[in-house]
């Protein structure tokens, strides 16, 4: 039986998600939370979800063939200019705004 690293990562992510859900269900939250209590709970929930998010991101990157470290903003601008795209152009934002106004 040959299990790949990716398959193990997926299985581990699923187990971690299940464990996070169980922990959330077992917690007894007060009917009313203060802002500080809510913030603490949300940060804890985010920490519990992070392994699953990281595994899903790694899987998606692998499927898309994305490898290596992210490039910095300066390098990204150079790459955009080389591809004929003006990084200072706001055409994408203008288009989103136009769609909202429809």
Summarize the structure in short.
The protein has 102 residues and is mostly helical. It has four helices and no strands. The chain is flat, with a radius of gyration of 21 Å.
Can you give a write-up of this model?
This protein has 102 residues and is an all-alpha fold. It folds into 2 domains: 1-68; 70-102, no CATH class. It is built from 4 helices and no strands. The protein has helices at 5-26, 35-64, 73-82, 91-101. Helix 1 runs antiparallel to helix 2. The relative contact order is 0.09.
List the main descriptive attributes of the protein structure presented here.
mainly alpha; 102 residues; flat; 2 domains
N-to-C CA distance: 56 Å
- Summarize the biggest pleated sheet: none
Number of separate helices? 4
Number of domains: 2
Number of E-type strands: 0
Query: Regions with pLDDT < 50 over 5+ consecutive residues?
Result: none
Structural class of the helix and strand makeup? mainly alpha
Q: Beta-sheet strand percentage?
A: under 5%
Radius of gyration (CA) equals: 21 Å
Shape: flat
Average pLDDT over all residues: 86
- Helix content, binned percent: over 70%
In sequence order, what are the helices and strands, one letter per element? HHHH
């Amino acid at each position: 039986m040959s299990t790949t690293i990716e398959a193990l990562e997926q299985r581990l992510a699923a187990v971690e998600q299940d464990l996070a859900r169980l922990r959330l269900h077992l917690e007894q939250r007060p009917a009313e939370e203060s802002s500080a209590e809510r913030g603490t709970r949300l940060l804890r929930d985010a920490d519990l979800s992070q392994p699953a998010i990281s595994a899903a991101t790694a899987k998606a990157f692998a499927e898309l063939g994305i490898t290596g470290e992210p490039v910095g903003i300066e390098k990204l601008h150079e790459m955009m200019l080389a591809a004929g795209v003006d990084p200072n152009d706001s055409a994408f934002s203008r288009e989103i705004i136009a769609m909202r106004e429809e």
